[in-house]
Amino acid sequence: MREKKLTVLPKLEKMLVQMGENIKLARLRRKLSTEQVAERANISRPTLWSIEKGAGGVSMAAYAQVLFVLGLEKDLLKLAGDDPLGRKLQDAELIVKGRAPKTPQ
């Protein structure tokens, strides 16, 4: 069975590249080698290089491990923290299909 290849949109690709550059700069500021970070994050050096290049095929867990090693894991909590569209939908009181109520047995 062929594996489905993930297609990353150009805008997202640019964001991943920027994030990879930020991770690399954070590593360099801490004067850590790729070998040290990869070992501490329990990933291979090629995986770390892919992260620093902003590769879309690397798992989010690997990115999270590297951020943890660099002391930046709290940045993950900022993802989707502010949800203006969700708040607008909530404010508009749109009906969202929910689960059916449980029937008594």
Can you offer a commentary on this structure?
The protein has 105 residues and is mainly α. The protein has a single domain (10-91), classed as 434 Repressor (Amino-terminal Domain), CATH 1.10.260. The chain is elongated and about 60 Å long. The termini are far apart. It contains five helices and no strands. 52% of the residues lie in helices and 0% in strands. The model has no long low-confidence stretch (mean pLDDT 87). It holds the Pfam family HTH_31.
Which helices and strands, and how do they pair?
Elements: H1 10-29, H2 34-41, H3 45-53, H4 60-69, H5 84-91
Taking pLDDT < 50 over at least 5 consecutive residues as the criterion, the unreliable ranges are none
Q: How would you classify the helix and strand content by structural class? A: mainly alpha
**How many domains make up the coordinates?**
1
Overall pLDDT, averaged?
A: 87
CATH superfamily: lambda repressor-like DNA-binding domains
What brief labels describe this structure?
5 helices; Cro/C1-type_HTH; Helix-turn-helix domain-containing protein; 105 residues; 0% strand; Lambda_DNA-bd_dom_sf; elongated; 434 Repressor (Amino-terminal Domain); 52% helix; mainly alpha; DNA binding
In short:
The chain is mainly alpha-helical. It has five helices and no strands.
